[in-house]
Specification:
It is built from seven helices and no strands.
Length: 191
């Protein structure tokens, strides 16, 4: 195998479960801050999520002398699951949004699956290049490539911040048509 040849199928399965279920829930709960124009919820959920994972991983290193790859995967999954529950509780408590799970309609399945596949394709496209560069061009090239990639990501942070802070406003204005959203976009882009 070209990438991650040392991971077993069990480890890949555990990490896939974590990313697609628990991290997916965390991101969905974080986005409620955008939808309700309360960015503090989004920031808090992201901090709690990252902090929980870091706390569990540090505890694992301190408690277990020889951590296996499976141990890392299970610890990451446990931390992500706890973070997802905390995120759900924060959304309920702060934004008073009550989630109800019901059987999706055909339209919801079609739209949701399309959105999910697009999001998954973006995640794969966004992350697959670095291991490939490492495997095909070596560590030096991969390090240089990753540093350049991070520089571009950091340069776009102000634009992403404005975009995230205005998502709800864009959707609200979108009810009146594209003209209103175009006006807002132009106003935000011109310094």
């Amino acid at each position: 195998p070209l990438v991650l040849s040392s991971l077993s199928l069990r480890q890949v399965g555990i990490l896939a479960l974590t990313e697609f279920v628990f991290v997916g829930f965390i991101e969905t709960f974080a986005i409620t801050g955008w939808a309700t124009e309360r960015m503090g919820i989004t920031a808090l959920i992201r901090w709690v999520s990252g902090g929980m994972r870091l706390l569990v991983l540090v505890a694992l290193v301190l408690i277990v002398p020889q951590v296996t790859e499976l141990g890392w995967a299970v610890a990451y999954t446990a931390a992500s699951a706890v973070a997802a529950v905390i995120a759900w509780l924060l959304v309920r408590r702060i934004s008073h949004i009550r989630l109800s799970f019901s059987r999706p309609t055909r339209w919801q399945l079609t739209a949701g699956l399309s959105y999910s596949f697009t999001g998954t394709a973006f995640m794969v496209q966004d992350g697959i290049d670095k291991p490939l560069v490492l495997e095909l061009a070596g560590a030096t090239a991969a390090g240089t490539y990753s540093a350049g990639y991070r520089a571009v990501v950091m340069a776009l942070i102000p634009i992403r911040a404005v975009l995230m802070a205005t998502y709800a406003r864009f959707f609200r204005l979108g009810r009146d048509g594209l003209r209103a959203t175009n006006t807002l976009a132009r106003r935000l882009l011109v310094p």
